[in-house]
Specification:
Elements (H helix, E strand, L loop, with lengths): L1 H21 L17 H11 L1 H5 L15 E4 L2 E4 L16 H10 L14 H4 L4 H11 L23 H9 L12 H13 L3 H4 L17 E2 L6 E2 L11 H10 L12 H8 L4 H13 L8
Antiparallel strand pairs: 1-2, 3-4
Length: about 300
């Protein structure tokens, strides 16, 4: 019996080590960015579409380009606090390299080799291209530094065990597209905005008990993670607005019924209003091209 127990213990240790190895934090190969120089002007559009300032600007600051962090985002797993991502070398990410940003966006991995919580929507950002990441990095270098220290997340056991996030990533981190075959270049551009940069699915798609996005119910609406109300569906079967209505809403915040956007959508619309009209139209075309709709509606 003792020999059997020792064998079982040894097998358990081997399996645990193998599991930790398979789910270890992954990083991007730095060489892929060696010959790439970012364009800050293009990066500003990436920054705006991705909503970086919406989450990371200081809640008490009127300047939304001061990315000192501090906003609190409640969830069923605890409350997550947006960190400082300003150019400050100690409190922010001023000591990072481009590859560090790429590893964070693509793999949810910090420069110290730790897993980030998926409250940071890297499950969507993982679809970003190298060019978009390099341009974003170039723009972020132009932003002001702020020495405000990042605050810890308010997450209890067992969700505070970051090693478990490797298993979450193994199950749910996928850089494939939800809409496999966009019928036009416009819909393809909309796919980039909806599925990657603007990460619309992070709020408008329901999640399974482990917090993974249910892509089989893509954009069909979801409970509000703050616990109040629901996030509305965007599928053609539920959103009967025309493509023009959708594009206009993303520019102005006004619905076809003369209502106005509220909650976090206010910040989303502030971002989309700064993008070219073609981008808002591309999002509308994408939503109309989802199953049950038509890109020509």
């Amino acid at each position: 019996m003792r020999r059997l127990l020792l064998r079982l213990l040894a097998a358990a240790i081997v399996l645990a080590v193998a599991g930790l190895w398979i789910t270890r934090p992954r990083t991007v190969d730095a060489q892929r960015f060696d010959a790439m120089e970012g364009d800050a002007e293009a990066g500003e559009m990436v920054f705006t579409a991705a909503g970086c300032a919406s989450c990371h600007h200081a809640p008490t600051s009127e300047d939304k380009l001061v990315l000192a962090g501090g906003q609190v985002f409640p969830s069923p797993f605890g409350a997550f606090v947006a960190p400082n991502i300003s150019t400050d070398p100690q409190a922010g990410i001023g000591g990072w390299e481009l590859v560090d940003l790429a590893s964070a966006l693509r793999h949810g991995t910090s420069p110290e080799g730790r897993h980030y919580y998926p409250a940071f929507p890297y499950a969507s950002y993982t679809r970003m291209t190298d060019r978009q990441i390099a341009d974003l990095w170039a723009f972020m270098q132009t932003l002001p530094a702020d020495p405000t220290p990042s605050q810890p997340h308010q997450v209890g056991f067992p969700f505070n065990i970051r090693a478990s996030l490797g298993g979450w990533k193994l199950l749910f981190l996928d850089d494939g597209w939800v809409l496999d075959e966009p019928p036009s270049p416009e819909v393809e551009r909309g796919r980039v905005l909806v599925e990657a940069l603007a990460h619309c699915g992070e709020c408008h798609t329901p999640r399974n008990p482990l917090g993974g996005l249910r892509t089989d119910a893509w954009l069909t609406g979801a409970p509000n993670p703050a616990g109040k109300g629901t996030i509305p569906p965007l599928t053609p079967a539920k959103l009967d607005w025309s493509a023009g209505d959708i594009a206009y809403y993303l520019e102005t915040g006004f619905t076809p019924d003369y209502d106005t956007a509220g909650g976090h959508m206010v910040a989303v619309i502030e971002n989309f209003a700064q993008l070219p009209a073609e981008d808002r139209e591309a999002v509308a075309a994408y939503l109309k091209a989802l199953p049950g709709g038509s890109a020509e509606n």
